[in-house]
Amino acid sequence: MQLLVQLLKKYKMGVCLPKRKRDCHKGDCGYVLVLGGSSGLTGAVCLCASAALRSGAGLVRVGVPKSLNHIFEIKLTEVMSIPLAEKDGCLSVEAFGAITSLLNKIDVIALGCGAGAAKGLVLKIIEEVNKPLVIDADGINALAGNPDFLNRRRSQEVVLTPHLGEFSRLTGASVDTIKKKRKALVKDFAFRYNLTLVLKGNRSLVGSGKKLVENSTGNSAMATAGTGDVLTGIIAGLLAQGLSPFDAARTGVYLHGLSADIAVKDKTQNCLIASDIIEYLPKAMKKIK
């Protein structure tokens, strides 16, 4: 307990924000590729991409099913898009070649937001792509019941961001068990698979196996669709700017909650939506600075 208190104090005092040099250009500030999107779930990718850009990434591109690309061209202004091979409205394994052609340019992949039935592509990326990964939503669902697949991954920099239900499907433990033993389960999972795990919820946990911190920001107004996609984008943006996976995750979780804490004063508990968190992110960063 004493060690946890020390870690919590360090966490509250040591939130990391990337610093820019005076002569930097967009290519120096990180390039995020967001892969996901499917029929009926285009908003998840838009929220993730916008959050990555707002968190400071210099370049963000979305890789989406080609039949839906026109939607992203309209909804996203500063974010680039690339239409990819699909099957039944979801990204397919045939998109892998086009994705690999971008790998020498990008710094981080945000994987799974609104991806739907894209399990084959998700697993192929995890197994074969050596780039930092932030895996959320359908990216985590692709691993459901088979977390040992993570031992086959190429990338050593991986952040998983499950909520209680996704973590239950991933580990096989019931939601009630996770609630009772969440600190031990997060620490054990992160250690076993040598990654950073964010267990989302009230007082979200961030664990790396060696470190475990409990977040102190956020409120119940965040219980609304899309807030998880925003968090994925923030973490990916910070990771692309050079923070370690653990620092990007703990800082992202803190900023995500702090932005909501500031926004709720104007928007109220009942009216806050996910895009408000992106809107108020500059105020959260300013408050930290």
Draw up the topology in text:
Elements: H1 2-13, E1 31-35, H2 42-54, E2 59-65, H3 69-75, E3 80-84, E4 86-87, E5 90-91, H4 96-100, E6 108-111, H5 119-128, E7 133-135, H6 138-141, E8 158-160, H7 164-171, H8 175-193, E9 196-199, E10 205-207, E11 212-214, H9 227-240, H10 245-267, H11 274-279, H12 281-288
Parallel strand pairs: 1-2, 1-6, 2-3, 6-7, 7-8, 8-9
Antiparallel strand pairs: 4-5, 9-10, 10-11
Helix pairs in contact: 2-9, 9-10, 10-12
Task: Summarize it.
The protein is an alpha/beta fold.
Report what the structure shows.
The chain is 45% helix and 14% strand. The protein is α/β, with parallel strands linked by helices. It has one domain (28-288): UDP-N-acetylmuramoyl-L-alanine:D-glutamate ligase (3-Layer(aba) Sandwich), CATH 3.40.1190.20. Strands 3-2-1-6-7-8-9-10-11 form a 9-stranded mixed β-sheet, sandwiched between helices. Strands 4-5 form a two-stranded antiparallel sheet. Helix 2 crosses helix 9 and helix 9 packs across helix 10 (245-267). It is globular, with a radius of gyration of 18 Å. The two termini are 29 Å apart. Mean pLDDT is 94; it is low at 1-13.
